[in-house]
Amino acid sequence: MKTKLVSVILLTVFLLSGCQHGMVRNERGGKFVAREVTVDGVARRYQVFVPSKQSGGEHPPVILFLHGSGERGSDGVKQTQSGLGPYVRAHADSFPAIVVFPQVPDNEEWYQGSAKVAFAALDAATDEFAGDRDRTYLTGLSMGGYGSWELALRDLQRFAAIVPICGGIKRAHDERALFVTQVVDDPDPYATVAQRLRDKPIWLFHGAQDNIVSPEDDRKLFAAFSAVKAPDVHYTEFADADHNSWDPTYAMPELWSWLFEKRR
After folding, report:
1. Is the dihedral of CA 129, 131, 136, 137 positive or negative?
2. Gyration radius of the chain over CA positions
3. Does residue 210 contact residue 242 with C-beta atoms inside 8 Å?
4. Alpha-carbon gap, residue 59 to 48, rounded angstroms
5. Is the pTM of this model over 0.85?
């Protein structure tokens, strides 16, 4: 009797552990799960949205989302509360992709150790939830828009497409160390980025009324991509939008149709 009771307890603990760690995907309705990844001896919290099997299939696409400066911290939650997180939460029953939400600590940017953390979180979530590595996408807003260029240039082969929103590559303000390190000393960073990412599907978004990060960088980038005849690079500038160009971006059905068609 005692042996049977112990077996039942162990089985219950095992089942609860599997549910807690999200190893079993829901048949219907996606969910957010909390995770940690250790990089250089430091544990960092992040979140993952896991789609239902009905929406994502056995091997869903994967999106890495890079938040803006207002969501920095160590709580592992704020990065889901602006940008892609609210959109996914509102469409949790039908959104078809795994979404990985790493977080940058206070006073850091995406080009510091947080770039390593983002890649590590992406790898861990892709492995755990059987994501499709050939349909892995990168998007970010503001500081995360800069981060999208940073990570894309660090690993030219990883992402099937990138969607930078209200970002840039050159320093936006004297008081902020916000720039893309891969081309910081380049005499013509726009031409270099366009040449290196010429064959990458890219869709840039910006608000014409943005007074925090000027759309000028994105205009120059798009001109540079056009100059090298990049086959699948697009630019949308919302005439009436300010810095928040992410809400109208993620609300565009045609963006998702375009994105999920892309493969490495």
Report:
1. negative
2. 19
3. yes
4. 15
5. yes
